[in-house]
Amino acid sequence: MGFRIRKMGFYLWVCFSLLCYSLSFVSSQTEGDTTVEGTVFIDGKAPIATIDDDFICATLDWWPPEKCDYGTCSWGLAGLLNLDLSNNIFLNAIKAFSPLKIRLGGTLQDKVIYDTSDNQEPCTSFVKNTSEMFGFTQGCLPLNRWDELNAFFEKAGAKIIFGLNALVGRSIKSDGSAVGAWNYTNAESFIRYTVEKNYTIHGWELGNELCGSGVGTRVTANLYAADTAALQSIVQNIYRDVDLKPLVIAPGGFYDSNWFKEFIDKTTKSLDVVTHHIYNLGPGVDEHLVEKILNPSVLDGESRTFSGLHNIIKNSTTSATAWVGEAGGAYNSGHNLVTNAFVFSFWYLDQLGMASKYDTKTYCRQSLIGGNYGLLNTTTFVPNPDYYSALLWHRLMGRNVLSTSFAGTKKIRSYTHCAKQSVSLVLQLASRYMNNYQLRISNMVNFHLGTVERVKFGIPRTLCQSVWMLHSGKLL
Ligand SMILES: *[C@@H]1O[C@H](CO)[C@@H](O)[C@H](O)[C@H]1NC(C)=O
Ligand SMILES: *[C@@H]1O[C@H](CO)[C@@H](O)[C@H](O)[C@H]1NC(C)=O
Ligand SMILES: *[C@@H]1O[C@H](CO)[C@@H](O)[C@H](O)[C@H]1NC(C)=O
Ligand SMILES: *[C@@H]1O[C@H](CO)[C@@H](O)[C@H](O)[C@H]1NC(C)=O
Ligand SMILES: *[C@@H]1O[C@H](CO)[C@@H](O)[C@H](O)[C@H]1NC(C)=O
Q: Distance between CA atoms of 51 and 420, rounded to whole angstroms?
């Protein structure tokens, strides 16, 4: 690994209670030899956005052990068909969130068939074949595996979002587009089986990365809207005697303003959640990922997507809300010792803050386990640093998001929410330049400042690409 980082800082959460409208405080940090001062302005009059209580979500993918990128095979037995469901570290890691949302899906979801009674084909796993789209043949989910997964999710208290195969029945034209209506026979019987077994599914999501210009192939917004209406009608029918109705979610792909606008306008009666994916750092093989993660203008770039989607939703009569359905930062499975190391929290925490600011209700991290971007180690299930970032966020950051701005260096990222547990605010500051920080809170208006509590996570700069994390000097 060839990265050298001169300095690596901290993320800092400041919790304080107050009864006030606005405040500002001054923080200064030493950058090299000079001290830089900045002021954080928080407007506490009214929230600018609201997130779900269970905003934190992570994904499980279908990739088999044979999935390799640039010569590295990073999935091991972390795929849905192979995952060890008897591992206690895994169980407890999920339980700690009570609940963690988990989205099941990914590239191969549009090649999965379900072994319900209508299925005529043998139920076999994916087989590597480079001439096939996505590099693998069709694979099959056996019902006994689906039973095991559901037993595990119930024990772990997870809320499941299941990504359905949206390519069944379509044919792929020579220009790369997929045409013809979605054949939902297999999906319908799979949903019916799930309901008969009393498994609780939080949401059914249609398709993976088929919107806009698509990955592998693409489906037009008009056709996708018709298929989403079909999914909603299947769901309404199957769940008619069930009290808890699942969400109808789509399209689970990359944001494209024209495609999303048309889709959202045509699904005002059928769609509950509009999902988009984020891989804004480029391919995992990139040798300059660390520089990108620490570059404020790269981080800021994603705000165009968030605000674009937010405006489309605001402008539409839809009642659908936006989620990030899958975000791994660097595509093709991430990069070992970057997207699973301490340094990646500078991207991840910034994403969580930015998504919240634009009223994104839920954010699914690729991945809970598997690839080089897992919250958990692929072989040992031991938490990587971002697991702790996710857990801290989940415990501290409440639903109401407050307008926060920082006058000073762009290298300090600041986000404020009302706290989860009490009448207080949580300000999240993250910067690699916060080695020697001072935080001075100044009483700008008449407010009562209660206890100030700081939670600081850091790592000695030499270990920034390590997978450890320190909390108050103690190794986690
Ligand atoms: C791989 O897929 C192609 C196209 O579907 C097929 O013609 C070929 O026989 C497959 N190769 C193997 C080894 O199965
Ligand atoms: C849809 O797929 C099923 C097999 O799952 C098949 O029996 C049926 O004929 C297909 N429907 C259409 C309209 O092609
Ligand atoms: C599902 O729940 C219903 C009502 O609570 C019950 O009658 C039925 O036996 C349950 N089915 C299974 C497969 O557990
Ligand atoms: C929102 O609607 C207004 C008025 O119809 C229009 O001018 C504007 O371009 C729309 N914005 C988006 C993002 O669709
Ligand atoms: C995951 O654990 C294995 C076994 O302890 C170790 O070799 C590997 O380096 C770990 N991976 C990461 C990213 O920490």
A: 11
Closest to 388 (Cα-Cα) out of 344, 449, 444, 332: 344
168 C-alpha to center of ligand 2: Å? 9
pTM: 0.91
**Backbone phi and psi for residue 113, each to the nearest 5 degrees, phi listed first:** -110, 155
Q: Which ligand minimizes its atom distance to the CA of 369? A: 5
Would the CB of 377 count as within 6 Å of ligand 5? yes
User: How far does residue 314's CA lie from ligand 4's centre (Å)?
Assistant: 9
Q: Are the beta carbons of 15 and 419 closer than 8 angstroms?
A: yes
- Residue 101: the pLDDT is 98
| 337 and 384 Cβ atoms separated by less than 8 Å | no
What distance in Å separates the CA atoms of residue 93 and residue 100, rounded to the nearest whole number? Answer: 9
Give yes or no for residue 89 CB within 6 A of ligand 5.
Answer: no
| Domains of the chain listed by start with CATH number | 2-49+406-475 (no CATH), 51-401 (3.20.20.80)
Question: Is it the case that residue 19 has pLDDT exceeding 60?
Answer: no
Q: Is 326 a catalytic residue?
A: yes
Q: How many CB atoms lie within 10 A of CB 51?
A: 24
Q: How confident is the model at residue 287 (pLDDT cuts 50, 70, 90)?
A: very high
Q: Which ligand is nearest to the CA of 128?
A: 1
| Burial of residue 462 (number of CB atoms within 10 Å: 0-12, 13-18, 19+) | exposed
For 37, the token pair is: 């001062």
Ligand 5, atom 14: closest residue by C-alpha: 467
